Amino acid sequence: MPLLGFVQQMGIGALMTIQVAVCAYLFALAIGILFALATLKPKSLMRIVWVPYSSVFTGVPSLLIAFLFFYAGSGMLNQLGALIGMDIQIEITPFMAAVTALGMVYGAYLTDLIRSAIQNVPRGQFEASDVLLVPRPVTWIKVILPQVLRLALPGMTNMWIVVLKDTALVSLIGLKEIMAYAKLASGVTKEPFVYYLLASVFFLGMTWLTYVVARRVEKWTECGFRPMVTKGRAHAL
C-alpha cells in the first residue's frame, strides 16, 4: 500500500479517536454531575452506591475495565435480560466498550472534582438568592454553575487530555483508532518512526487546541469576577 494510503487510514483513525474521546468524556461528565449533586450531603443515601463505585473504578486500570466490558459485557447483559423475562441478544462493540470503560472510570474522578468545585462556591451565594426570592433552579443555572465552571475548568481540561491520551489503550480490544493504524503501517512499511511520529503530532496538536479553547472559556468565565486577594507579595517583608 502506498504511503498516502496509510496516511489516509491514520486520518480515519484520528477521527475515531476523537469520537471515542468526546463520547467518553461526555459520558464521564454526566456521571460526574449526577454523583456530585447526589452526594453533596455527607449522609446521602447515594453514598451507598458511590463508595463502591469510586473504589472499583479508581482502583482498576481503565484498560482492564475495557477488557471486562468487551469480553463479558454481552454475556452479562443477555443474562440480565433473561432474568427479567426478555429474550435479547446484545453485542458489545469495541467502540461501546471503550466509551463505557473510559466514561465510567473518569466519571469517578470528575465526581470529586465537580463536588469540590460546588463546595467551594461561597454559601452566601445561595443565601443571597434566597433573600432575593430567586427560584432554586434559576440559582443553580445562572449563579452557581458559572462559578462551578470557573473553579473546575482547569481540572476538567486536564481530565479531557487524560481521556484523549487513554484512547490509545483501546486499540488492544480491536478498535481501529489512530494507534491501531500506526501500528499496522509500521509493521507493513518497517518505518515505525514515521507513523508513530505522525500519531504523536496528532496528540500534541489536540493538546494545544485544548489549551487554546480552555483559555478562551476561562476568560469568558472570569467576566465580572474580581478576586478578593490582589496580586503581589503575600507578606509584609
TrEMBL record:
It comes from the Bacteria. GO terms for molecular function: transmembrane transporter activity. The chain crosses the membrane at residues 12-38, 50-72, 92-110, 151-173, 193-214. PROSITE patterns: ABC_TM1. Keywords: Cell inner membrane, Cell membrane, Membrane, Transmembrane, Transmembrane helix, Transport. Residues 14-214 form the ABC transmembrane type-1 domain. The keyword Cell inner membrane applies. It is a multi-pass membrane protein. Belongs to the binding-protein-dependent transport system permease family. HisMQ subfamily. This is Amino acid ABC transporter permease.
